Amino acid sequence: MEYTGSKYIGEYVDGRMEGKAKYILPTETIYVGEMKDGMFHGEGTLYFPSGSQYDAIWENGLAIKVWLNSPIWTHLEKSPRAITIVETASITQSRG
């Protein structure tokens, strides 16, 4: 499913993105992990085009616990947009 220029490959529950998934954002940043009600929720990793990654436990679209209490960057991430994605990881709005 494509949603606002993004691509979702994963499970659905009652028509909502939920379960294990791969979510490709228009910026080519990729989220691989768990989703609930259309948001990052549970264990998941953001992979940035530069090759860096951000491993975290997510709750309702926000990173609440980062592995080892700090971001795990495999390469220096210089993109302010990437940081914005981490801070505002909620990717869809709930539909009523």
From TrEMBL:
InterPro entries per record: MORN, Morn5
SMART domains: MORN
Repeat among keywords: yes
Subcellular location: Cell projection, Cilium, Flagellum
Main location per the UniProt record: other
Cellular component, GO annotation: motile cilium
Pfam families registered for this protein in UniProt: MORN (PF02493)
Name of the molecule in the record: MORN repeat-containing protein 5
Gene: MORN5
